[in-house]
Amino acid sequence: MNSSPITVNPLREGIANRLAPEPCTLVIFGATGDLTHRKLIPALYNLAAEGALPPAITIIGFARREKTTEEFRAELEASTRRFSRTPVSDDLWKSFASSIVYHRSAFDDAEGYKQLAFAMEEADQKRGTGGNRLYYLAVAPDQFPIILSQLRESGLSGATSGSWSRVIVEKPFGTDLASAKELNSLVNEVFPESDTYRIDHYLGKETAQNIMVLRFANSIFESLWNSNHISHVQITAVEPLGVEGRAGYYDKSGAMRDMVQNHLLQLLTLTTMEPPTSLSADAIRDEKVKVLRSLRPLKGEDVFRHVVRAQYKEGLINGQPVPGYRDAEGVPKDSTTETYVALQVNIDNWRWAGVPFFIRTAKRMPKGGSEIAITFKSVPRVLFNKNEEPLDENVLVIRIQPDEGVSLRMSAKRPGSSLRIEPVKMDFHYGTSFGKATPEAYERLLLDAMSGDATLFARRDEVEEAWAFVDGIEDAWKTRSDDLAFHAAGSWGPAEATELAARHGVTWRRM
Ligand code: BG6
């Protein structure tokens, strides 16, 4: 499969200078689905509540089910009341909902796209949306080709002069490198790379964005940010939830494809990339790609030394019994899909040579949370560090969620006449420091797509490099299954993962 070159749009300002979101029509394909109800509409409502939406917007829900605009609005109101991060006000909902229209059509029906064109032109005239189009593919990936080719055939993918036409694509973005390349080519045949926005909602999380600010807007960290001073890094994203009715997708995917290929590798790149030449979307993404290219490939037998996969069995979470993965609805009784994965990876470049990185993600853990923990090297074993039991190392923790913030563990003298040194924490909490609730990732990402800022979206080469790495592991896993470990739901994972870390003198952090 040929990959077309990355086109750099010089107009993109990146995260440095926020461009104003422009008037547009947002067409959501798969508008009756879970994502629209739980995330997209609540995010758009909250943007409306903050006055952050563009001055003119029309939201067209495109789906197959028969329903009227009134019915659609009523369903969205119910779900927004349930999932919105702020309470829904009746008046505001009314004015927000007046911008929502339902468009019933099959995804492969050319007539439906003709009607869509009329609806969008009408919106342009009535609401002043200026011919700008944002298409959101909130559908299963097997629908992408059909929708994309219809958009092209109907002439809707191209923008008229003075306006733009963009596409937002949800994950999963392929299931391996070959399928991701195929999908990329397909998308880029219809939309140029500069108009393609691949969502990775972790990038929209406030603290994920703060990683770069922490590193490059402070003078104290970056000089220590290398193998001379850092002993190891742990990146964790765990949750107490199970598969929650998504077995059909999850059982084919597993934790490696579902979380590591995208969210966790994104956090790894933000943590380890070199300073970009500017804050433009492509300068930042260039650096992230270099990290992915420097990842030491894991292949063949190496996979079984560096990666632990496991599945949860029945157990207790918060004192409540929960069934094992194989007993979840829709999961085959003999499934070997991993719900837990722990990896030790290396970045073979000048800055990180010799530093082990530990990545872990799992469902049905005792608690949920995502964080990056950077452990610094110990002080020399002299002076205060001469005892048999060494002093605790300094650890900088970037908490992605919950309770977003950053903490630094240091050693301090316990007050008193004897010399007792204990670890203490300097802690920054977003909530208390800024007194403002952090927005949902989708709010930020939708706004960025309306503004033409692709910084927080995955570029084609990033996605493909990440798949190339993950494919090595998945290929090795296909050759055997006896390495699959098991752990009780509500425990912190299998003994094999403890051993993986212990081989490097590391203990997994309790969240
Ligand atoms: C999604 C995965 O991308 O991220 C889910 O498909 C996972 O399996 C979710 O639960 C976790 O996201 P968050 O924002 O709750 O950490």
What is the assigned CATH homologous superfamily of the largest domain? Dihydrodipicolinate Reductase, domain 2
Radius of gyration: 24 Å
**Apparent shape:** globular
* Hetero compounds: 6-O-phosphono-beta-D-glucopyranose
Strand order of the largest sheet: 16-15-14-13-7-12-11-8-17
Secondary structural class: alpha/beta
Q: Count the beta strands.
A: 17
Strand content: 15-25%
Helix count from the secondary structure assignment: 15
Instruction: Assign the CATH class of the largest domain.
Output: Alpha Beta
Model regions low in confidence, pLDDT < 50 over at least 5 residues: 1-14
- Number of separate structural domains: 2
Characterize the biggest β-sheet: 9 strands, mixed
Helix content: 25-40%
- Provide the residue-averaged pLDDT: 93
Overall CATH architecture of the largest domain: 2-Layer Sandwich
Under CATH, the topology of the largest domain can be stated as: Dihydrodipicolinate Reductase, domain 2
Distance between the termini: 43 Å
Kindly describe this structure.
It is a single chain. The chain has 511 residues and is of the alpha/beta class. It has helices spanning 34-49, 69-83, 90-97, 110-127, 144-153, 177-190, 206-216, 219-222, 247-272, 281-294, 300-306, 430-434, 441-451, 460-478, 495-502; strands at 24-29, 57-63, 100-104, 133-137, 165-169, 196-198, 230-238, 307-313, 315-317, 320-322, 340-346, 356-362, 369-376, 395-401, 405-414, 420-429, 485-488. The strands form 3 sheets. Strands 16-15-14-13-7-12-11-8-17 form a 9-stranded mixed β-sheet, with helices on both faces. Helix 5 (144-153) links the parallel strand 4 (133-137) and strand 5. Helix 6 (177-190) packs antiparallel against helix 14 (460-478). Residues 1-14 have low confidence and may be disordered. Bound molecules: 6-O-phosphono-beta-D-glucopyranose.
